[in-house]
Amino acid sequence: VLAPWTYTPGVILTCAVPLFFMVSGYLAQLSSSTRTQPFKHFLGHRARRIVLPMVLWSVGYLMLMHFLMGWPLFTSKSLWYLMTGFFHLWFLFVLFQLFVVHKLLAGWLEGRGALWAIVVAICIGLAWYTLSSILLARTGDDQHFFEWHWGKLFLGWAVFYFWGVYLASAPAVVPWLRRNVFWLLLAVFASFALFFVNFKLEIETYGNLVRHYFLISGLPFQILAASLILVLCMIWEDRAGKIFKVVANLGKDTFGIYLI
């Protein structure tokens, strides 16, 4: 059984991908192109910025694995990974789906529309995380199949993306969060404790981490921790300058793909 200190960083870092999608939704909602650019042009621009790097990475990764480990090139599994991304840039496939959904709803995501969008996204997120937890309890170790395959659908990540959209659309919410950063931090610690206990139980039961993200006990921590970091970035942006631009320049393969 793994010692707690070996997987504690992994528990903490499960908020990283949710943060990525939350920042994506926040900045996409602030961008005028999301609302004003014609649908065809919008998709074309996003495809060049997102899909092309993902496909190039996937082709290169598949060729490397073919020569180093003998992976077959022409199978349904290989085609799936080429279309949806291998173990690094899979999140770009999800991001593109979310951008498409966002563009389809762009004219509606103002005021109460954004509120209804996050309500629906929360319901979908709760259902998705609950389904994942139930499947884990019933089927046991699935060799990460659920997260590595079904986790590439936007459904499990929409709650984070549209929370970012909502924060960009509800000017009264962000100041309230900024005034209550201390309480938000306490909520992060409390939700982390619950998530950590579940992780510990998972390792004791299965001998490894079968689920990293989609555990119902982890959803509160992921939302709260990502929200805290986003709010701190907003505070930094106001006081010290362009933090989002700095992040984009530090990560051309992640944030920079769609921020620049």
Question: What does the secondary structure layout of this molecule look like, with pairings?
Answer:
Layout: H1 4-12, H2 16-30, H3 32-36, H4 39-69, H5 76-84, H6 90-105, H7 112-139, H8 145-149, H9 158-169, H10 173-179, H11 181-206, H12 219-240, H13 243-250, H14 256-259
Helix pairs in contact: 1-11, 2-6, 2-9, 2-12, 4-5, 4-6, 7-9, 11-12
Index terms:
mainly alpha; 14 helices; 0% strand
Detailed description of the structure:
By secondary structure, the protein is an all-alpha fold. α2 runs parallel beside α6 (90-105), α2 packs parallel to α9 and α11 (181-206) packs antiparallel against α12. The protein is built from 14 helices and no strands. The protein is 76% helix and 0% strand. The N and C termini lie far apart (44 Å).
Order of helices and strands: HHHHHHHHHHHHHH
Helix content: over 70%
Give the low-confidence spans. 253-260
Care to count the β-strands? 0
Mean pLDDT: 84
Largest sheet: none
Radius of gyration: 19 Å
Count of helical stretches: 14
**Class from secondary-structure proportions:** mainly alpha
Large-scale geometry: globular
Strand fraction band?
A: under 5%
Which assembly state applies to the chains in this document? single chain
Instruction: Please report the distance between the alpha carbons of the first and last residues.
Output: 44 Å
Quick structural gist:
By secondary structure, the protein is mostly helical. 76% of the residues lie in helices and 0% in strands. Helix 1 crosses helix 11.
